[in-house]
Amino acid sequence: MKMEKRKRLVILDWMKAVAIFCIIITHTDLLSRDIPMNYVLNCLIVAMAVPIFMIISGYNMMNSQLKCGRLSWRELYDVHVLKHQIARILPAYTIIFLIETEGELMFGGGRINSSNLLHYILLYFVGGKGPGGYYVPIMIQMFLVMPMISILIAKRPVSGLFFTLALNSGFEIVVRLISFPAEIYRLFIGRYLFLLAMGAFFRMIRGQKVKTRYLFGSLVIGLLYACVTNHFRLPDGTYSWSLFKYWQITAFPVAFYLFPFFYLLIRYLHDVQIKTWFGAVMQKIGSCTWYIYCVQMFYFFIVYEMCGFKVLLRHIPLVFELIVSFLICGIGGYLLYVVEKWIRKKVVGGRGIIEVPKKF
C-alpha cells in the first residue's frame, strides 16, 4: 500500500486540551459544593472527555497506520511495533506510579514489605490508585485491538463500523447478564470498541461529504441516549434505571452524539492554524495530554485527597479551584514531559528505547 503523508491536525490538539480540562472537572469534588452529578453540562460536555480521547486515539492510530502503509495482519501485529507503542506510554506512567506510591506510604504511614509487595506489583498493572488509572491497561489493550479494527474499517468502512458496534453491544450484554464486577469492567477495552472504530472511520472518510440527514439522525440518537440516561441519574452519580450496567453516561452510544461535531470540525477546520500565544499554549497542552493525565492521577489521589488540599480549595470560588488544579496538573505534566525527554536522551543514550508519545 502506498504510504500517505501525515499532516498534524491542530484542531485535534485543541479538542484534547478541552478534554483534559474536563477530566480535571470530573475528578473535582463537586458534591461538597452542592453541585449534583447529574447537572446537564456534565452529560453533554464534561463527561465526554474520555469518549473524545478514544475517538481521537482511533483516528490517530489509523492515520499512523495509513502513513506507514501497514494494513496487513503481519505488519500490524509486528512485535517490534507493539513494543514501541507500549514503550511510548510506560515511562511517564511508571514515574508517576512510583511517586504516587511513595506519597501514599509517606502520608498513610505504611511501607512496602514481603506481605504487600505483590499487591503493589498488581496495582502497577491495573493503573495505580489515582483517578483514571484504568486508562493505562486500556491503552495497552488498545494497541492490541486497533489493528483488527483498522483492517475492518479500511476494507469496509461502514460495515466495519457497525460490526464493532455489534461487538461492543455484545460485550455490554454479557456484562449485564453475568456477575461482572465494576473493578474488572473498568479495565476492559471492550466498552470502547465502537468509539475507537468511530475514530478510524473518521480517518477513512476524511475529505468525503456526509449527508446532513445522517449527521442529524446521529445527533438525535446520541442526544436522546445522553438525556434519557442523565434523567435517571441521581445527584450522587448512581442510577435509578439504566440501559447499561456501568459508566452509563460514557457508554458507546455517545459516539452518535459526538459524530456530527467531529465530522464538522475535521471537515471545516482541518487546516486552521491559530498563530497566537493562546493557540500555541492550547496546542502544547493538547500534545502533552498523556503527561497531564498521569500527573492528575497523582494530584487528585495524594495532594487533593490524602493531603486534604481540597479542603483548602473549598474556601475559594469553584472557578478558581479548577484553575488552580489545572495549573498544577498542566505545569506538572509539562515537567514530566521534560524529565522523560531528558531520561530518553541522557539515560538511554538517545537510542530510541523510550519514545515520547505523540498522541493520547
Descriptive account of the structure:
By secondary structure, this protein is an all-alpha fold. Helices cover about 70% and strands about 0% of the residues. The chain is built from 16 helices and no strands. It has helices at about 10-25, 40-45, 50-70, 75, 80-110, 115-125, 135-155, 155-175, 180-185, 195-205, 210-230, 255-270, 275-285, 290-305, 310-315, 320-345.
**Measured distance between first and last alpha carbons:** 26 Å
Count of discrete alpha- or pi-helical segments spanning 4 or more residues: 16
Shape: globular
| Fraction of residues in H or I helices | 55-70%
Radius of gyration: 20 Å
Average pLDDT across residues?
88
The portion of residues forming beta strands comes to: under 5%
